[in-house]
Amino acid sequence: MKPSELETMRKSFNTVKKRSNSIKDSQSTKRLESRVREIKKYSIENNDELLSQAIESFRRNDIDVRMAETADDALKIIDDLLDEYDAGVVAKAKSNTLGEINLKSHLADRDIDVVETDLGDRILQLKKTDNKPVHPTGPASHLNVSNIAGIVNESLDVNVNPKPREIMEVVRSDVLNRLKNANVGISGANAIASEEGSCVMVHNEGNISIVSLKDLHIIVAGIDKIVPSLEDAISIVKLETIFATGNYVTSYMNVISGPSKTADIEKKLLKNMYGAEKVVLILLDNGRSQATPDCLYCIGCGNCVVHCPVYNAVGNEFGFNNYLGGRGVAMSKFIEDDETCFDSGLYMCTLCGLCTLNCPVAIPTNEIIENMRKLSTEVGFYPKAHGKIKDNVSKNDSPY
Fold this sequence. Notes:
6-stranded parallel beta sheet, 14 strands, 4-stranded mixed beta sheet, 400 residues
């Protein structure tokens, strides 16, 4: 990242800190933290049981559930669905899971136009190169208003002024125009309620509502998102919102529990009133079954990277794909392999523990990273300078 982008990112992070400081230490937030930790602990320990219940509940609700063991499996399912609907344009909502499976680049290879509906993601999409997000809920937090105006003007061939509202209106108009021919929407999910068979999604822009109104709505979510009940799912997204944005609740909270339907004519069930005629949920494993359980506690707020000294110094080169910072490095071992984990910044971490101190569910990322370094060394992935010192100590009783 450029020094100017790092500076802008740090300013954005400071804004989030100031906004969240006023509510994250409140008694209600502390109670919510305790509740969510218990929810995640129970859900991880009973994931197989909850997964079976979720599949049954979703099918009861007329949601088509597919299991994807790997990213390639998920992409194959999506490909078949897009072919079924003859989709040339896809409306996409913000999703770290879709970033994990590299959906956009995959569909670009198929000449399918994926339109980001989230403003930050759309700005990065228009940027075309060097466009990795820097925060899970504020992907373009490293770009100032002048940078963004330049990106929009160059990509859309317009002449917008560097004013936030003008930029928003131009991008919104372009997105809505491009989505006129889209009959498929794709999103992730913030939490999944096993008992009810419901996917919970939070957003401020209203864009997920647009995505979910397409003829086919595809939802891709990791199996780690499953919790016992809708009340549990709501608790998780409330806590995520507090630490991600500094607000108690987002503008919108969508609960998807089935395709659009009505029974207002003689109580006869009719599908596809206004929303999707078909909802497909793809539950993704992709290494989660083998992951260190502590890694799966994450609720996606991004507060760890906001406070991480390494991330604030080097930016998004510390992390894996859309999973940023130390927790992203840790997950890369299970999603990909040891080499990817090493390349993602395994030895960048200072092990200071600030991420854990500022994590609402207290993920011990520094301890996870330290253990992974031991395992990485055993299979030959470690800084070569460290290896030289080790050899010198072994041969000469000295690091020199």
